[in-house]
Model the fold of this input.
Amino acid sequence: MKHRPAVLLMAIATAAGVVAGVSWWRGRTGRVDVSDAAQVEQGRGLYGVHCAKCHGADLQGEPDWQTRKPNGELPAPPHDASGHTWHHGDEQLFSLIKHGMARFAPPGYKTAMPSYVGVLSDSEIRAVLAYIESTWPAEIMDRRATVEKR
Done:
């Protein structure tokens, strides 16, 4: 029984270390950081492989992206400053990429936006977002800051 305070102290120290480690790791992978050149560059490559086919190599989206196709789907929107991507917060965009549009749309909504569960990790999705956001002009980033505060 006389070793009990030492064991308790060791357990508390271990728990604190785990929490600190998780917080550190989450901070490195749990946010979109356009000032992190490595995250942006990783996102550029991932975007080229997974997103450019539909959203365009230059983030321009498909032509006439606001008019439904004959099959009822909307074309892929642009992710550059001309589109509406910047109107959405990081967590909403993260969820749309991770889970696909169908999860959030009303029943019967037609969409080609797939889920990336099992394809991209959470940190890879955030890297794609960092790349996209890194291309937006300062004016858009300033306006978007109000979106993130909501």
The two ends are 53 Å apart (CA to CA). Residues 1-30 form one domain. Helices lie at 4-29, 37-50, 52-55, 90-99, 122-134, 138-149. Confidence is low (pLDDT under 50) at residues 18-29.
